[in-house]
């Protein structure tokens, strides 16, 4: 007899729950799922916009570097003693930027 009194006790709220409570819980779960879905859509839209912005930045950087190289080639085509160090410097800067960009991509930044 004493052993029966020490058994696991049920949750007292279970006795008070009825069908309307279960309906409320299901409604709350459905609303939560809708909010999670909306949040996921907004996150994906933001990621897409960031990717598009990044692509534009890379494109305009490429155009700028090509324009710089063409300008230097046109201005100093008759002076190889000046042209070689300038192109070497531009190549070094370009290599450094590309290396840093690749390292940042690899580390996920």
Write structural notes for this entry.
The protein is mainly α and 109 residues long. It starts with a helix and ends with a helix. The mean pLDDT is 83. 86% of the residues lie in helices and 0% in strands. The protein has a domain at 38-109. Helix 3 (19-75) packs antiparallel against helix 4 (80-107). It has four helices and no strands. The chain has helices at 2-5, 12-16, 19-75, 80-107.
Q: Compute the number of strand runs.
A: 0
What percent of residues adopt helix (DSSP H or I)?
A: over 70%
Q: Give the overall shape.
A: rod-shaped
The rounded Rg comes to 33 Å
Q: Oligomerization state of this entry?
A: single chain
Structural class: mainly alpha
Mean pLDDT: 83
Q: What is the tally of helical segments?
A: 4
Order of helix and strand elements from N to C terminus: HHHH
Give the CA-CA distance, first to last residue. 66 Å
Which percent range describes the beta-strand content?
A: under 5%
Largest sheet: none
Low-confidence spans: none
